[in-house]
Amino acid sequence: MPEILVTVYDVLMRTYPGFLEATLVTLQLTAVGVILGTLIGLIFALMKISGSKILQGIANLYITVIRGTPLIVQIMFLYFGISEIYAMPGFWAGAIALGVHNGAYIAEIFRGAIQGVDPGQREASMSLGMNRKQTMQRIVFPQALRRSIPPLGNQFIITLKDSSLVYIIGVAEIFSLANREAAQSFQPFETFLVVALYYLALVMIFTFLLRLYENKLDVDKA
Amino acid sequence: MIIGENIHKSFGDLEVLKGVDLHVKPQEVVVLVGVSGSGKSTLLRCFNFLELINEGKITIDGHTIDPKKENLAKVRAEVGMVFQHFNLFPHKTVLENVIEAPLIVKRQKRAEAEKKGRELLEKVGLADKADVYPSKLSGGQKQRVAIARSLAMEPKVMLFDEPTSALDPELVSEVLQVMKQLAEEGMTMVVVTHEMKFAKEVADRIIMIDQGKIIESADPKTFFENPKHERTRQFIQMVE
């Protein structure tokens, strides 16, 4: 076996207890980021299609600011900015930053999906005597949700990878552990290769689960 | 049943309906014809307020509708509409499509709605398709489900907006057959269509709309054999 594979294997075996713990933190960060982001995204998507100029304006401002600034700046801002007022644990500052960041992208995903539903669906629903709210709840949203699942899945994968940026405020997720390992062991190449494998494995598992879910939806509809 | 008086409708600068008067009597079957862009579909859509008129008055079953004051959902529930592209709900089964509005709008009990829904599917010849999704149906079947879905609300009048235009030729007759049956049962119907055979056989009256105005209104025999207006004559020549 080539020398490099042996050392990578050694690093993998030596570090896996720590990395498994760190993986849990990464998954927790991702979960909070995704859930919070979905809630925020839904609210801002509804604001954007509300027809109220004020709500639309607020949503547009939010989306512009968040999409126009780097996530790492948002994390630092939240961690140090807010801690002036309230000392937030690093995990929560990071998770909330991920949620707020994702919310802007998810809002656009939802808005596109809602507006992408054939106008004929709304017309048919309304012609049957359903009011605007019933039409949205029963006809438009369920179809929009189906449409948004592939781009949402994509966004979730981005969140998983973006959670590595939270290392900057010292949360013990995969990447911050990797940094420490690399420095202590003088094996940065092997360590980061191992880290890449962790992320790759997580993304592949996630992609697989997502595909299962998409197939299930298609079967339902067919 | 439906009275339209001096109906004007514009989209931006384009005036599509320029003062239309139309009185549809109970149990009457009125067929609207005209070249594309004449305003016939728009007129139909005004009758269930998918388009709001700019000027004029619409009375449905003796009740003049002011779109600003009225609960339009309630008005629409009494006016059935069948669309060119069916617009079935793809995420619901055939039966769910049919019972959706009775459940949600009329708040019928599920068992009752399902019983009625199955009867309606039987009526349009699709009882065996109750539990499949629309994507598994042919165009003709989809349109028959759409008709059943509309009938489930027990409308006082049915509007058909080119119901067979999107169908393959061999599927047209199964839809027209259902419509003919409805007409025989005494349903009030306003139908936009290019099916002249259907118009001849089923319509009580054929109305020709040209450039946003009614230019001819006559029983089928008079309409085809002795039209008054030159444009009607040209139109008949073109379609026959």
Automatic annotation (TrEMBL), chain A:
<dbReference type="InterPro" id="IPR035906">
    <property type="entry name" value="MetI-like_sf"/>
</dbReference>
<keyword id="KW-1003">Cell membrane</keyword>
<dbReference type="GO" id="GO:0022857">
    <property type="term" value="F:transmembrane transporter activity"/>
</dbReference>
<dbReference type="InterPro" id="IPR000515">
    <property type="entry name" value="MetI-like"/>
</dbReference>
<keyword id="KW-0029">Amino-acid transport</keyword>
<feature type="transmembrane region" description="Helical">
    <location>
        <begin position="59"/>
        <end position="82"/>
    </location>
</feature>
<protein>
    <submittedName>
        <fullName>Amino acid ABC transporter permease</fullName>
    </submittedName>
</protein>
<feature type="transmembrane region" description="Helical">
    <location>
        <begin position="22"/>
        <end position="47"/>
    </location>
</feature>
<comment type="similarity">
    <text>Belongs to the binding-protein-dependent transport system permease family.</text>
</comment>
<keyword id="KW-0812">Transmembrane</keyword>
<feature type="transmembrane region" description="Helical">
    <location>
        <begin position="192"/>
        <end position="213"/>
    </location>
</feature>
<keyword id="KW-0472">Membrane</keyword>
<dbReference type="Pfam" id="PF00528">
    <property type="entry name" value="BPD_transp_1"/>
</dbReference>
<dbReference type="GO" id="GO:0006865">
    <property type="term" value="P:amino acid transport"/>
</dbReference>
<dbReference type="InterPro" id="IPR043429">
    <property type="entry name" value="ArtM/GltK/GlnP/TcyL/YhdX-like"/>
</dbReference>
<keyword id="KW-1133">Transmembrane helix</keyword>
<keyword id="KW-0813">Transport</keyword>
<feature type="domain" description="ABC transmembrane type-1">
    <location>
        <begin position="23"/>
        <end position="210"/>
    </location>
</feature>
<dbReference type="InterPro" id="IPR010065">
    <property type="entry name" value="AA_ABC_transptr_permease_3TM"/>
</dbReference>
<dbReference type="GO" id="GO:0043190">
    <property type="term" value="C:ATP-binding cassette (ABC) transporter complex"/>
</dbReference>
TrEMBL record, chain B:
<dbReference type="GO" id="GO:0015424">
    <property type="term" value="F:ABC-type amino acid transporter activity"/>
</dbReference>
<keyword id="KW-0067">ATP-binding</keyword>
<dbReference type="InterPro" id="IPR017871">
    <property type="entry name" value="ABC_transporter-like_CS"/>
</dbReference>
<feature type="domain" description="ABC transporter">
    <location>
        <begin position="2"/>
        <end position="236"/>
    </location>
</feature>
<dbReference type="Pfam" id="PF00005">
    <property type="entry name" value="ABC_tran"/>
</dbReference>
<dbReference type="InterPro" id="IPR050086">
    <property type="entry name" value="MetN_ABC_transporter-like"/>
</dbReference>
<dbReference type="InterPro" id="IPR003439">
    <property type="entry name" value="ABC_transporter-like_ATP-bd"/>
</dbReference>
<dbReference type="GO" id="GO:0016887">
    <property type="term" value="F:ATP hydrolysis activity"/>
</dbReference>
<protein>
    <submittedName>
        <fullName>Amino acid ABC transporter ATP-binding protein</fullName>
    </submittedName>
</protein>
<dbReference type="InterPro" id="IPR030679">
    <property type="entry name" value="ABC_ATPase_HisP-typ"/>
</dbReference>
<dbReference type="InterPro" id="IPR003593">
    <property type="entry name" value="AAA+_ATPase"/>
</dbReference>
<dbReference type="InterPro" id="IPR027417">
    <property type="entry name" value="P-loop_NTPase"/>
</dbReference>
<dbReference type="GO" id="GO:0005524">
    <property type="term" value="F:ATP binding"/>
</dbReference>
<keyword id="KW-0547">Nucleotide-binding</keyword>
<keyword id="KW-0813">Transport</keyword>
